[in-house]
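Changelog note: in this version the structure field was regenerated for every chain. One regenerated record is shown below for reference.
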Amino acid sequence: MPQKNRSHVNDAWNASVIALVIVLAGLLYVFGAAMSGDSIHLTESIRGAEVFDTRNLP
């Protein structure tokens, strides 16, 4: 394979990996915030989610 084509393939892989990392970081942030109870509004915005607020229980 000529060097010029290989460079385009490498650029495409690099862009794909960077995009994948950004998407996974976003998902990790959203689900991490939802699971930690950081924001009840965020948890309620997930369809079918049930909110159990146990912070004030004895």
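Spot check on this record: The chain is about 70% helix and 0% strand. The helical segments are 3-36, 40-45.
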